Amino acid sequence: NQHRLYYNFLLTWLPSRRPVALLFAGASVWRLIWRSQSRAQGLQTSFSPPTYFAPLSPLSHSLPLCGLPYSLPYEGPDRLLSRGRRMEGYDAKFDPPLEKRLECPICLLAQREPMQTPCGHRFCSACILRALRETGPRCPVDNTTVCVHQLFKDNFAKREVLSLNVHCSADQCGCSWQGELRDLQVCTTYYMCMCQQ
């Protein structure tokens, strides 16, 4: 169901992950409505998938407070969903080897943008969102019921992963660089080493 796909997508990109309503006006223009905590008014945005979101505009009627003090990213759902499919974990040469607890149980790589389930399991954000979308609302590890709005970003785990020591993975360039994962950049288009040397 395409409506459900876009609805789940939008839930993941809203910081509160609790929109008030997602209205479908025909097949082309959709409207997302929520209440902003930082502004004393309702806000809305309309968009035509897969194009960009329209600017935010005030609503004329009040909505229940859902605690969203942020605006939406101005990228179309199709574009971001497509980008998300490529965002598996980090495939790097870790030294020392990657600990199991920092490995995504789905892609078996270091967790990228880790998200945690209510049952305590961590996954790459793209991996868990894809799993929930394709196999239903179940944790891939213990089969516990998990809904998208129950996931939360694990910033502590993210900082831990990005601070891990790695070697340059672009062997073709003969680079001997090593340092924190956050400083490693590999150009996947030309397979050239771009690791700040």
TrEMBL record:
Statement: the UniProt record of this protein carries the keyword Metal-binding: yes
Alphabetized SMART domains for the sequence: RING (SM00184)
Listed GO biological process terms: innate immune response; lipopolysaccharide-mediated signaling pathway; protein ubiquitination; regulation of canonical NF-kappaB signal transduction
Coiled coil: none
InterPro entries given in the database record: TRAF6_RING-HC, Znf_RING, Znf_RING/FYVE/PHD, Znf_RING_CS
GO molecular function: tumor necrosis factor receptor binding; ubiquitin protein ligase activity; zinc ion binding
Highest taxon listed in the record's lineage: Eukaryota
SUPFAM superfamilies: RING/U-box
Domain RING-type: 104-143
Entry keyword set: Metal-binding, Receptor, Zinc, Zinc-finger
A matching Pfam family: zf-C3HC4_2
PANTHER family, alphabetized: TNF RECEPTOR ASSOCIATED FACTOR, TNF RECEPTOR-ASSOCIATED FACTOR 6
Protein name as annotated: TNF receptor-associated factor 6
Source species of the chain: Geodia barretti (Barrett's horny sponge)
